[in-house]
């Protein structure tokens, strides 16, 4: 899920020159294996479950199937998320996040010095026309491109607070986290953007004083169909930009 532990692990992975790849928790077992089976990961970060529309979903049995199908895996790190099943004693490669960190002695942060084109991210195509295809992004190239879009296109500044509706499967998640390179504050949101009600994201914008908010055309179109006007219900004085991506906006949107 879109949790702080996911962000921490991505930053730690890339800091030592290892490759990072991610997918959302709602993908089926085969969909995950079709992706990760191509890149032979050594470590898998996951959760014991997740929430969607207020319902708790356990993921441990699915993760166990995925781990069985990925012989390259040496360790599965499980983040406790909510009130889901937490018994991992029957899974030999599994360890809880807290227990994993407890074994490590704190040390100074060191960043591996690597070539500009050293691979950083592995992303995947949608898989609608066969198995998902790998797309390797170099660390230097993708960071420069993200900063170009964030600083020049989005006018992101150090004192901004940015939030984007995205899952860890979408490239916008990687894009969002490059905001940290600008020094901006990132607000993470996990789950359905209209739960518990249609104003969920706008209440978040109000409470967290978000200045740049990103969403999809389908989300904007949904609000329009519901005749929902956020400014009539929430204080959006902090918000100076709405960024939209995913598909073209309708003429009405």
- Order of strands, widest sheet: 9-8-10-11
Helix content: 25-40%
Which runs of at least 5 residues are low in confidence (pLDDT < 50)?
A: none
Mean pLDDT: 93
Verbal overview:
The protein has 253 residues and is of the alpha/beta class. The chain has helices at residues 4-15, 29-36, 60-69, 97-102, 139-153, 171-177, 200-208, 217-225, and strands spanning 43-47, 49-52, 55-58, 75-79, 94-96, 119-124, 134-138, 161-164, 185-187, 212-216, 241-245. The chain folds into two domains: 4-138, Rossmann fold, CATH 3.40.50.980; 139-245, 3-Layer(aba) Sandwich (Rossmann fold). The longest helix has 15 residues, at 139-153. InterPro entries: AMP-binding_CS, AMP-dep_synth/lig_dom, ANL_N_sf. Residues 1-252 form the AMP-dependent synthetase/ligase domain. It comes from marine sediment metagenome. This is AMP-dependent synthetase/ligase domain-containing protein.
Structure keywords:
single chain; 253 residues; alpha/beta; Rossmann fold; 2 domains; four-stranded parallel beta sheet; three-stranded parallel beta sheet; 11 strands; AMP-dependent synthetase/ligase domain-containing protein
């Amino acid at each position: 899920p879109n949790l702080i532990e996911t962000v921490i692990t991505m930053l730690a992975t890339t800091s030592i020159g290892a490759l990072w790849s991610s997918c959302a928790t709602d993908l089926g077992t085969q969909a995950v294996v079709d992706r990760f089976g191509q890149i032979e990961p050594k470590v898998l970060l996951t959760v014991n479950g997740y929430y969607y529309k207020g319902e708790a979903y356990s993921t441990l049995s699915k993760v166990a199937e995925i781990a069985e199908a990925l012989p390259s895996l040496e360790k599965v790190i499980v983040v406790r998320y909510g009130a889901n099943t937490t018994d991992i004693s029957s899974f030999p490669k599994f360890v809880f996040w807290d227990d994993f960190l407890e074994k490590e002695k704190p040390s100074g942060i060191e960043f591996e010095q690597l070539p500009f084109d050293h691979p950083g991210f592995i992303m995947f195509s949608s898989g609608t026309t066969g198995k998902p295809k790998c797309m390797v992004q170099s660390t230097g190239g993708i960071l420069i491109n993200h900063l170009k879009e964030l600083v020049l296109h989005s006018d992101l500044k150090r004192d901004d607070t940015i939030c984007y509706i995205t899952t860890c499967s979408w490239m916008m998640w990687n894009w969002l986290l490059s905001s940290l390179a600008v020094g901006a504050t990132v607000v993470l949101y996990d789950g359905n953007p209209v739960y518990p009600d249609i104003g969920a994201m706008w209440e978040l914008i109000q409470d967290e004083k978000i200045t740049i908010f990103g969403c999809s055309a389908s989300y904007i179109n949904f609000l329009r169909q519901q005749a929902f006007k956020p400014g009539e219900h929430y204080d959006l004085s902090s918000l100076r930009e709405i960024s939209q991506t995913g598909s073209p906006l309708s003429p009405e949107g």
